């Protein structure tokens, strides 16, 4: 149990959250290392250990301070990066280059140079222009690059529009159009500096049904077959992206096997029937690895009751440490950490401190009545919270603490005012 209540106080991975707030200040991101490791263990036991050649590249965009990159290194899994900054962080943390893959719809030349130079494991090519640049860089540096080609599988999924990426009208990937795709694939196969390794897709985020991944896998398999027929070339990997849902309030997270076993079965089946060399399967889970492992601690400030309308309970953070409610209407839940056992008699809206009406953290929550000075905990903030934090209104970015079985350690210092203006000339 990573969450438990003792003496009316919420404990997280064995640590008293009120004490953590006192020790480090608020707002504060707190991550359960036990939970992150448990998730990675699940990936190993149900996927990596069962399917030869399988690969897990944690999507660093969800949360990638050095400390998280070191967990990836120590767990000996891979990481998917989407910028020079994430690549730099992964390399700094000592993740082996072979364990890094690079995604993105507009990788900059200097980012690609860094990737080729450091000989990372895979570059996921998003278009012809990019592939030309990679070839040019490889020639200039006397290197080769292992690539996957990202397709848009044209699968519609049920998720928020902003986090759906695999549909036809998308800035990501290469459309299902033979006139575009086939010349590009021929070039990849024939290039002496490219090792054309596989096909990649990513269809969206926060999914709870496996049908979309399966549908897209079918599209990728048909392409594998076409490539074999047309060019006599064997594809060695299909990367099915991330998107596995996490629990925020009452959704039920599905085990990885729910998504992955049917994919593996489909691949085995299809390749057997069509006499194809079976490609290995790679995945890029981000949210599902870290969302539930993270919580945010706030201190309650101003409380405002508008009679007959709503009670606003303001906290010392908000959209600057968690943009997701404002950006995606994401729904969270939480409790007053120092009243965790009290009856939920009150209804209130937790709002942030930014000058923006949309800066709402949780709308119409039922819980124990908070008092100014109480500590409020928001659950499941581990993915895309810290990584999307901003300095809007010149609020500082909170620190990050890792907890594990009752022990705590600071892994990111809270930003100070001096830090915040240090680049301003
Ligand atoms: N691979 C690729 C190529 C992706 O574009 C993404 C997410 C992932 C993997 C990881 O997906 P996940 O397992 O985390 O669902 N900021 C948004 C999420 C954007 C996701 C973009 N791509 C949010 O806070 O909901």
From TrEMBL:
Instruction: Cite the Orn/DAP/Arg decarboxylase 2 N-terminal domain residue spans from the record.
Output: 39-291
Could you confirm whether the keyword Ligase appears in this record? Answer: no
Query: GO BP, one example?
Result: lysine biosynthetic process via diaminopimelate
Gene Ontology molecular function: diaminopimelate decarboxylase activity; pyridoxal phosphate binding
Which InterPro entries does the entry link to? Ala_racemase/Decarboxylase_C (IPR009006), DAP_deCOOHase_LysA (IPR002986), De-COase2_C (IPR022643), De-COase2_CS (IPR022657), De-COase2_N (IPR022644), Orn/DAP/Arg_de-COase (IPR000183), PLP-binding_barrel (IPR029066)
Q: Which EC number(s) are documented for this chain?
A: 4.1.1.20
Entry annotation: catalytic residues: 355
Positions carrying N6-(pyridoxal phosphate)lysine: 61
The coenzyme or cofactor needed here is: pyridoxal 5'-phosphate
Which keywords has UniProt assigned to this entry? Answer: Amino-acid biosynthesis, Decarboxylase, Lyase, Lysine biosynthesis, Pyridoxal phosphate
Q: Please tell me which top-level EC class this enzyme sits in.
A: lyase
Q: What reaction does this catalyse?
A: meso-2,6-diaminopimelate + H(+) = L-lysine + CO2
HAMAP family from the entry? LysA
| Family to which the UniProt record says this protein belongs | Belongs to the Orn/Lys/Arg decarboxylase class-II family. LysA subfamily.
Subunit annotation: Homodimer.
Name this polypeptide is given: Diaminopimelate decarboxylase
């Amino acid at each position: 149990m990573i969450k438990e209540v003792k003496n009316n106080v919420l404990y997280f991975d064995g640590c008293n959250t009120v004490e953590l707030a006192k020790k480090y200040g608020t707002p504060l991101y707190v991550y359960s290392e036990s939970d992150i490791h448990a998730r990675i263990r699940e990936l190993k036991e149900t996927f990596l250990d069962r399917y030869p050649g399988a690969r897990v590249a944690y999507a660093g965009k969800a949360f990638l301070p050095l400390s998280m990159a070191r967990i990836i290194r120590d767990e000996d899994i891979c990481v998917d990066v989407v910028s020079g900054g994430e690549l730099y962080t992964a390399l700094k943390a000592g993740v082996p280059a072979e364990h890094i893959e690079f995604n993105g719809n507009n990788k900059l030349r200097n980012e690609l140079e860094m990737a080729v130079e450091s000989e990372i494991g895979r570059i996921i090519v998003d278009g012809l222009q990019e592939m030309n640049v990679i070839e040019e860089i490889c020639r200039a540096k006397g290197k080769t690059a292992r690539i996957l080609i990202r397709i848009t599988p044209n699968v519609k999924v049920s998720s928020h529009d902003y986090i759906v990426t695999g549909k036809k009208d998308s800035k990501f990937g290469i459309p299902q159009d033979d006139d575009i795709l086939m010349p590009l694939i021929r070039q990849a196969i024939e290039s002496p500096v490219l090792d054309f390794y596989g096909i990649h897709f990513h269809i969206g985020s926060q999914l709870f049904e496996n049908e979309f991944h399966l549908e897209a896998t079918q599209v990728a398999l048909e392409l594998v077959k076409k490539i074999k027929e047309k060019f006599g070339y064997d594809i060695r990997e299909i990367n099915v992206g991330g998107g596995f849902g996490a629990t925020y309030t009452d959704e039920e997270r599905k085990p990885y096997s729910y998504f992955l076993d049917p994919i593996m079965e489909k691949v085995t089946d299809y390749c057997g029937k069509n006499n194809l060399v079976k490609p290995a399967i790679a995945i890029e889970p981000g949210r599902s690895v870290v969302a539930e492992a993270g919580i945010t601690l706030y201190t309650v400030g101003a409380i405002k009751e508008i009679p007959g309308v709503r009670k606003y309970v303001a906290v010392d953070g908000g959209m600057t440490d968690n943009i997701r409610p404002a950006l995606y209407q994401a729904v969270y839940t939480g409790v007053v950490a120092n009243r965790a056992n009290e009856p939920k008699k009150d209804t209130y809206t937790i709002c942030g401190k930014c000058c923006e009406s949309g800066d709402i953290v949780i709308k119409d929550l039922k819980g124990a009545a908070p008092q100014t000075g109480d500590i409020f905990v928001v659950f499941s903030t581990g993915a895309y919270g810290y990584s999307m934090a901003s300095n809007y209104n010149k609020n500082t970015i909170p620190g990050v603490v890792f907890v594990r079985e009752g022990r705590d350690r600071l892994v990111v210092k809270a930003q100070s005012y001096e830090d915040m203006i240090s680049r301003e000339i």
